[in-house]
Amino acid sequence: MLTIENLARFQFGMTTVFHFFFVPFSVGMLFMTFLMECIYVKTNDEKWKQRTKFFGSIMLLSFAVGVVTGIIQEFQFGMNWSDYSRFVGDIFGAPLAVEALLAFFMESTFLGIWMFGWDRLGKKLHLFALFLVFIGSLLSSLWILAANSFMQKPVGYEVIGGRATLTSFSALLSSNQTILEFFHVGTGFFLMGGFAAAGISAFQILKKRGDVNFWKPVVRLGLLVALIGSVGNFVAGDQQMLEVKESQPMKFSATEGVYEKTGDPAEWDMIAFFNEADHKEVFGIKIPYLLSILTYRKPSGSVDGMNDINKELQAKYGTDKNYYPPVTVLFYTFRIMAGLSMLFMLLSAGGLFLTRKKKQGMYENNVMMRIYGWSLFLPFAAITSGWLVTELGRYPWTVYGLFTIKESVSPSVSVGSLLFSNIVYFILFSILGTLMIMYTRRLMINSDVENATTSYVELDPFSKEAFEAEAQTVGNKNTKDPIPTEHKEVD
């Protein structure tokens, strides 16, 4: 139904999902580029310099798109969620100001130095500039996630005059929710970067673009980073769900599809269908003991059901609200996220085993190269599923237990304006996504990475090389036309 609330939610959800396609991709590729330049500085091998420039070019594309979508996302706080902004403005002001004034400027400044610093700075100083960009990206993520964690689990605040006021900045940063979110998202960066680098290299090998030995080391480096990231992400995600069980029990029960309190031990639904109108499970394929093991780390213990939790929430916050989140969506997106997390560990560990020195036949197997090539898209599905669980599971709250979605929407927006802006944003995001894919593909097809000199010098119109290139062009033109100008005029 086209209501102001639904259209505002859809617009913010669409923007957030699209924006977060590029944040993990750009930070992950930034880390991979940093590792490749580390190897170049250590070994002085020109091949690693060329690899650094190639993957750095892709990172820059994703960084640019991520900035554009991030700006659009922030506009919506004032456009569609002004009442929400008034309520949490004092809380969000501190971390978002630090993110913009410190972290983002740190990223952009040193990224520019790195782009135009090839062959101008010493190798170690040039590498240090990229390291600072990476640190700035992590700090930027920390401040954003600190703000988001307040929405999940409010801490360090006091409501004064109908507005949440920050009373302890340290409590916000040291919250279990903030720490677990940061490590979960941060390990997702490594996972994404590893699979992206390995997947792109696998496609290059599959399409026989250049020497296969140029891409082999990147495949292994990417899979190693992906393995570390996937294991860390699995552990961090598991710990975060245990935190969710305590702070947001309705979300936890919804991800497991538990309407009524389970028995002891608790069975785990692998597949299930629900009647959300009547708040009950219709059908499920269950595995004995597993839900108890996942929840309590032992084969015993029951899990509270959503129906009982709903009664508790009504007693605490009022009977005028619906506290049930979209159960079917949460149930399956959680399984997609968890299933892909285990698949990532299998793919990365298996790929490292199959590409070891004594046996590298995987590079000649087109099926395997295609599998690892297409696997670079899987982290996008996992990350999107994770954000859907995080945000949809908090329904009906924007700030859990304090402020609802209905209270947060701007009072001045209309259905028509929201519908128009949704269409415009969807078209814009589609264009940006298409351009990102198109230019990345063009880089993969046309970049002569093995004979690269300086990837970014052509971006600087005032560089010495740019002036030399212009002079060479003019000289070539004059050579092709030896007839003096005055003779031409006579003719």
Verbal overview:
This protein is mainly α and 491 residues long. It has one domain (4-254, 330-452). The protein has 17 helices and six strands. It has helices spanning 4-43, 46-79, 82-116, 123-152, 169-173, 176-206, 212-247, 249-255, 290-296, 306-317, 327-354, 366-374, 378-392, 405-408, 415-446, 464-480, 485-490; strands spanning 157-160, 163-166, 268-275, 280-287, 397-399, 403-404. The chain has a two-stranded antiparallel sheet with strand order 1-2. β1 (157-160) and β2 form a beta hairpin. α1 (4-43) packs across α6. The chain is globular and about 65 Å long.
Rg (C-alpha, Å): 26 Å
Oligomer: single chain
- Structural class comes to mainly alpha
Total count of helical runs of at least 4 residues: 17
User: What is the share of helical residues?
Assistant: over 70%
Q: What gross morphology would you assign?
A: globular
What is the spatial order of strands in the main beta sheet?
1-2
Q: What percentage of the residues does DSSP assign to strands (E)?
A: 5-15%
Distance between the termini: 76 Å
Regions with pLDDT < 50 over 5+ consecutive residues? Answer: 452-463, 480-491
Mean pLDDT: 86
Total domains, how many? 1
